[in-house]
């Protein structure tokens, strides 16, 4: 090898040495605090986005608390507002509505019995069911403490509900029932 070749090989070896030395020092250098904080904040941001998405999905599936509650209910259940508590409250409201509807039905049957005591044969308060009156039927709901059955809900509509469609003559005759 000539002298120029040897010098070129030494220069290349020195360059390789300096590159390897720089890489080694870079590997030994401690982490930059700014990089660590940036990575931490990005991880925290990703975590917060996931938590918000879970909260949104939970609100969507269960329902927002404030949509279904009055102010007094919200104040009453400030700390203990789980889905079980909300379901119990909804069941209480439904049973209260059922009792109210039963009282209204009983009042209506009582008023009908007072208004026309001899009109419905075999009828009266507590008779319940369907009673015959001059060839027509009077649908009077019996008093009960439970919700109506599927058969009661899906049966044909009563003549009372079809008064407006039958015409003025039928409405005046059915009105007394």
Automatic annotation (TrEMBL):
It is found in: Cell membrane. Gene3D superfamilies: 6.10.140.1910. It is a multi-pass membrane protein. It catalyses: K(+)(in) = K(+)(out). Pfam families: KCNQ_channel (PF03520). Residues 5-99 form the Potassium channel voltage dependent KCNQ C-terminal domain. Its main location: membrane. The keyword Ion transport applies. GO terms for molecular function: voltage-gated potassium channel activity. Residues 139-177 are annotated as: Disordered. Residues 143-162 have a biased composition (Low complexity). Keywords: Cell membrane, Ion channel, Ion transport, Membrane, Potassium, Potassium channel, Potassium transport, Transport, Voltage-gated channel. Coiled coil: none annotated. This is Potassium voltage-gated channel subfamily KQT member 1-like. The lineage of its organism: Eukaryota, Metazoa, Chordata, Craniata, Vertebrata.
């Amino acid at each position: 090898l000539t002298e120029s070749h040897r010098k070129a090989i030494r220069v290349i070896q020195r360059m390789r040495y300096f590159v390897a030395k720089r890489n080694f020092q870079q590997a030994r250098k401690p982490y930059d605090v700014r990089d660590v904080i940036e990575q931490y904040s990005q991880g925290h941001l990703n975590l917060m986005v996931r938590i918000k998405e879970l909260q949104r999905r939970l609100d969507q599936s269960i329902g927002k608390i404030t949509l279904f509650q009055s102010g007094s209910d919200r104040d009453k259940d400030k700390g203990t507002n789980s889905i079980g508590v909300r379901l119990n409250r909804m069941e209480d409201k439904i049973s209260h509505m059922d009792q109210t509807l039963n009282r209204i039905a009983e009042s209506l049957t009582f008023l009908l019995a007072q208004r026309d005591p001899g009109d419905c044969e075999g009828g009266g308060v507590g008779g319940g069911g369907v009673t015959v009156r001059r060839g027509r039927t009077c649908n009077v709901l019996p008093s009960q403490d439970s919700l109506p059955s599927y058969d009661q809900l899906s049966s044909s509509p009563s003549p009372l509900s079809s008064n407006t469609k039958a015409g003025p003559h039928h409405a005046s005759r059915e009105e007394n029932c």
